[in-house]
Specification:
The protein has 268 residues and is α+β, with helices and mostly antiparallel strands. Helices cover 23% and strands 28% of the residues. The chain contains 2 helices and 19 strands. It has a 4-stranded antiparallel beta sheet with strand order 8-7-14-17, with no helix packed on it. Strands 11-12-13 form a 3-stranded antiparallel beta sheet, with no helix packed on it. Strands 1-4 form a two-stranded antiparallel sheet. A hairpin with a 2-residue loop joins strand 15 and strand 16. Helix 1 runs antiparallel to helix 2. It is elongated, with a radius of gyration of 29 Å. The two termini are 24 Å apart.
């Protein structure tokens, strides 16, 4: 019975972490360029159950009754699951919906690719193209971090520029004159080459090298989050039901232990 408590508790812990993941998806449903996460669960190695001293059936076997038995082989009991755990928090990199804003500094990525951002921890990557022009002319994100060019330096827009345009591969034009090139990169087909840092930023795993992106930049648009409120809420309700079932299992195991200790084991 102790094993049943551990198995049910492990399932409840798994569903708690899954709930946290779903809640984070819901909280970022309006975050530009956000990619939803999904908790991938695994199973602990199951245990093979067998009877003590089980070899093969004979005339004294408990499965033998009035010349009926299960054969010369011992009866198979089967396996017992020992619970689940969260194996990985996987990121869904599917394309989000495009929203037209009309702001010339709003950039959306169609297909594969990331913008490079300079942070205190080093270069980080994002699909959030909600950019602004600072007082010094730097192109920055909403947190005041500089957007980097292909040369590794911040993009600076001339103070007297009246029209700013961006090409599909990150070319930067001011009054029809190219003044720079955005660092527009991807990390190949391996979706786990980039890991989430927080604040809608990603950092590359050790050994991951940026290459020119295959996608295209669209000016005057923003990519919305790929989280869907309806599907996330349905998943949250389903997750709650699974957690509730685990809770009932724990209560049942506790009740059985109580009876074993206080009733079955009582001396008259």
């Amino acid at each position: 019975m102790w094993r049943g408590l551990y198995t049910a508790a492990a399932g409840m812990i798994t569903e708690t972490k899954r709930t946290d993941t779903i809640a984070n998806n819901l909280a970022n449903v309006n975050t530009t360029g956000f990619k939803r996460d999904e908790a991938v669960s695994g199973e602990f190695a199951p245990m093979l159950l067998h009877r003590i001293n089980d070899t093969k059936a004979d005339s004294s076997d408990v499965t033998t009754f009035k010349q009926f038995h299960l054969g010369l082989q011992a009866p198979v009991v089967g396996t017992l699951g020992l619970g689940s755990y969260i194996d990985e928090i996987a990121t869904d990199h599917s394309q989000g919906n495009m929203e037209t804003t009309g702001n010339p500094l709003d950039l959306a990525i169609a297909g594969d690719g990331y913008f490079a951002i300079q942070t205190n921890q080093g270069v980080r990557y994002t699909r959030d193209g909600n950019f602004y022009k600072s007082a010094t002319g730097q192109l920055q994100n909403v947190r005041g971090q500089a957007v980097l060019g292909a040369n590794g330096q911040p993009i600076v827009i001339p103070a007297r520029a009246t029209h700013v345009n961006f090409g599909p591969k990150g070319q930067v034009y001011a009054d029809n004159r190219q003044i720079g090139q955005l660092q527009f990169v991807s990390f190949g087909p391996d979706r786990r080459a980039l890991l989430k840092q927080g604040d809608n930023l990603y950092y590359p795993q050790a050994g991951a090298q940026p290459v020119p992106a295959a996608g295209e930049i669209q000016q005057g648009m923003l990519e919305r989050s790929n989280s869907n409120v309806v599907s996330e809420m349905v998943e949250l309700i389903n997750n709650y039901r699974i957690y509730e079932a685990g809770s009932k299992a724990v209560q049942t195991q506790d009740s059985m232990l109580d009876k074993s200790v206080n009733n079955v084991g009582r001396l008259s």
